[in-house]
Specification:
The chain has 401 residues and is mainly α. The protein is built from 17 helices and no strands. Helix 4 runs antiparallel to helix 5 and helix 12 runs antiparallel to helix 13.
């Protein structure tokens, strides 16, 4: 019996799911020891070390937010596969080069350069989005989100183990090798046979892209939704370990407990994203998103009043399920309401919105914690998520009716 060959979109989905899993590991495995690596590159005071750590961490997002739309434009003109290859090869070289730096300025410049080459995951998602049948897009993009989340979860553990076994510098070399593997997977096994380059001069400008959209209000409403989702989620990240320390009365293995609690939302997202995507394909993606917002509002509010780290862990795990209802499903709605010829551009705008949220979220959370309390961070986040739900209903749900 001759085995029936899978459609191209399913084969691409399998390969790119593996590739973004590898990329997720590569992007996150250097994070746990990056401040420690910075400390080996000079003699810094405590204040200077914190300043450089902040700059090195955030620099990539500032650059990526600005260049992503440009790469998205090229993706629609030259092909998403080409952009996947450009991003993976460029970042493979840059990450490996980080193992050769001799001062913190070189590391900072390379992190900025990494931001310039960003777009591997967004272009992988765009390629899957344009080739997958619309009725299957929720499940497909959910699978991509689950794969990337799984890689992000494993990355810190693998990076810590590699740094312990070898050194910080060798770990950067291995990270570059992982991204090179992702490059070769895409080069040899991803096929973009039906790509039609955008040749319309009108679509070279952002105004022309907007004019092509059937419902610009819906699309920009989704971009705003992405920005606020990322800002709300990332407002929590800077204070999780400090909140754990407070709940544990500064006793016990705070670092271990904080690491476990930080990983729990990602585990839940990994388990649920694909399933929620399939449910959205059946009942309506916007309904899944509204459920995600509602759940997040309840869980963030309860988190402000936890009495111990066990309760915090349970609520953070449950938050992961609401995360699975939000960002992957927003991408699905973008896919279902964007012409294929400008999907790369719209996904790049969505990525820029995500990066802007990544920048402002931690600043917001740390500022609130500084002037008030850790509990107040969660209360303010409830207000942010509630505002996002209202704006989503106003700009997106009303536009779909």
């Amino acid at each position: 019996m001759v085995e029936k060959r899978l459609p191209i979109w399913q084969r691409n989905l399998r390969v790119l799911a593996i590739a973004v899993f590898i990329a997720g590991i590569a992007f996150s495995e250097v994070m746990p020891f990056l401040p420690l690596y910075i400390n080996t590159l000079g003699h810094f005071s405590h204040q200077q070390l914190n300043m450089w750590a902040g700059l090195v961490f955030s620099g990539i997002y500032f650059v990526s937010a600005f260049v992503s739309p440009w790469w998205g434009k090229l993706a629609d003109q030259k092909g998403r596969k080409l952009m996947i290859l450009r991003a993976s090869l460029g970042m493979a070289i840059v990450l490996a080069a980080m193992g050769l730096v001799t001062n913190v300025w070189q590391l900072f410049i390379l992190r900025m350069t990494q931001g310039f080459f960003a777009g591997f995951v967004s272009n992988s998602n765009a390629l899957i989005a344009t080739e997958t049948p619309k009725e299957k897009s929720g499940q497909a993009l959910g699978t991509m989100a689950s794969s990337f989340t799984a890689g992000n979860l494993l990355g810190p553990f693998i990076g810590g183990a590699l740094a312990s076994l070898f050194s910080y510098r060798v770990t950067f070399f291995i990270t570059g090798l992982l991204l090179l593997i992702a490059f070769f997977l895409a080069l040899f096994f991803v096929h973009e046979d039906d790509f039609e380059p955008v040749t319309n001069k009108k679509l070279e400008s952002s105004r022309g892209v907007v004019a092509t959209l059937k419902n610009p209000r819906l699309i920009f409403g989704l971009l705003l939704t992405t920005l606020i989702i990322q800002a709300a989620n990332n407002s929590i990240n800077p204070i999780v370990s400090l909140y754990v320390s407070q709940l544990m009365h500064h006793q016990g293995n705070v670092v271990l407990v904080s690491g476990v609690i930080a990983a729990l939302p990602g585990i839940a997202t990994f388990l649920a994203a694909s399933r929620f995507g399939a449910i959205g394909d059946r009942i309506g993606t916007q309904k899944v998103i509204i459920a995600g917002f509602t759940g997040a509002i309840i869980l963030f509010f309860l988190t402000a009043f936890v009495q111990n780290s066990f309760e915090l862990g349970i609520l953070r795990f449950l938050i992961g399920f609401t995360d699975a209802c939000l960002f992957p499903q927003v991408q699905t709605l973008l896919t279902k309401n964007t012409p294929a010829m400008i999907t790369g551009r719209i996904f790049s705008w969505n990525q820029s919105a995500m990066y802007i949220g990544n920048i402002f979220g931690p600043l917001l959370g740390s500022t609130i914690a500084g002037v008030s309390s850790y509990s107040m961070v969660f209360i303010i986040t409830v207000g942010i998520v509630t505002l996002n739900l209202l704006l989503f209903k106003l700009n997106v749900v009303n536009s779909l009716d």
